[in-house]
Amino acid sequence: MFGLIISLLIVGLIAGAIARLLVPGKQNISIPMTIVLGIVGSFVGGFLGYLIFHKDGQDGFLQPAGIVGSIIGAVIVLLLWIKFGNKSRS
């Protein structure tokens, strides 16, 4: 259980950081928010992957396709955050 939590945090940090690198412009979010962005992006990417391919991740936790899906999901969540989430700071 502890290993799963650590894996989620590491994959979340990597996916969130790559998403922040891919999206142009400055995002004013902290490292913990980057981790949350990656974790939420993992769920979004997994959900979209299930909707498109009708398969889930029964072959293991860390799969290359899952990490790519996490990054794509994190980019989607970050774009939505930039579009709708920063209204109070503008």
UniProtKB/TrEMBL annotation:
A Pfam family recorded for this sequence: Transgly_assoc
The yes or no answer to whether the keyword Transmembrane is present is yes
The record's SUPFAM superfamilies line, in alphabetical order, gives: ABC transporter involved in vitamin B12 uptake, BtuC
- Family assignment from sequence similarity: Belongs to the UPF0410 family.
What protein name is recorded for this chain?
A: GlsB/YeaQ/YmgE family stress response membrane protein
Keywords in alphabetical order: Cell membrane, Membrane, Transmembrane, Transmembrane helix
| Topology in membrane | Multi-pass membrane protein
| Residues spanning the membrane | 29-53, 65-84
Compartments where located: Cell membrane
A GO cellular component term found in this entry reads: plasma membrane
Native source species: Nakamurella antarctica
User: Does this UniProt record's set of keywords contain Membrane?
Assistant: yes
